[in-house]
Amino acid sequence: MKKNITLEDVRSDPQVDEYIKRSTEFLRLYHYTDHGIDHSNLVSERARYLAKEIGLSEKEQELVSIASYVHDMGNFLDRKNHEYWGALMFHSIFQERLPAEDMATIMQAIATHDNYRAQIVNAVAAVGMIADKSDVRRSRVIEKDKAQIARDIHNRVNFAATNNRFEANKETKKITLTLKIDTSFVPVMEYFEIFTYRMVQCRKAAQFLGYKFELVINDFKLL
Ligand SMILES: [Fe+2]
Ligand SMILES: [Fe+2]
């Protein structure tokens, strides 16, 4: 059997599909923002875009899009350690269909995406990290009840993010996340309260790729 899979193989795999759907249902019980199919698709597309813009190989672009698509599928077992569950689940599903080298790269990318003590270990993990941590948007808020949204800082900040633009520039060596935050709904400080460590990870990941990570909120360059 040829050992090679594409994003389409992964997206059409019934186990992957079930685990992502279950994760959506599981996290809904805890009033989390979207970690389901929309988040998977958005992060995967953004990661592929970034990988292409910075000149990673076609094979790496595919690995990046796969790792980014499945990175949150371990959430249905438990939010805690979901990065490790996800990496092991990916291995159990695709071990016969991927060479060990590519398997190890993807597993590392999944396992490190939410471990803030982890070093950035490879380019696939670096790109996936940036794509995941930059997904801040109003449509990520699943909760419909305004009072419930107001109670949780993650829901508040995502709800306040009315615009999100993501660009990579090979000439200037900059990766830029530009956000519009509705400050009538949430002060920009709240964004930093929950996103500082995520932005630090983005900066580390960008450095690994030889880039600078820039964050612009409401026309102010903050990073
Ligand atoms: Fe995650
Ligand atoms: Fe995620």
What is the CATH class designation? Mainly Alpha
- H/E element sequence: HHHHHHHHHEEHEE
Q: Biggest β-sheet, characterized?
A: 4 strands, mixed
What share of the residues lie within helices? 40-55%
Radius of gyration using CA atoms only: 17 Å
Name the shape in a single word: globular
> DSSP strand (E) fraction?
5-15%
Kindly report the spatial arrangement of strands forming the biggest sheet.
1-2-3-4
State the secondary-structure class. Answer: alpha+beta
On the 0 to 100 scale, the average pLDDT is: 93
What is the number of E strands?
4
**Termini Cα gap:** 48 Å
Number of helix segments? 10
Bound compounds:
fe (ii) ion
Count of distinct structural domains: 1
How does CATH name the architecture? Orthogonal Bundle
According to CATH, the fold-level topology is: Hypothetical protein af1432
The residue ranges in which pLDDT falls below 50 over 5 or more consecutive positions are: none
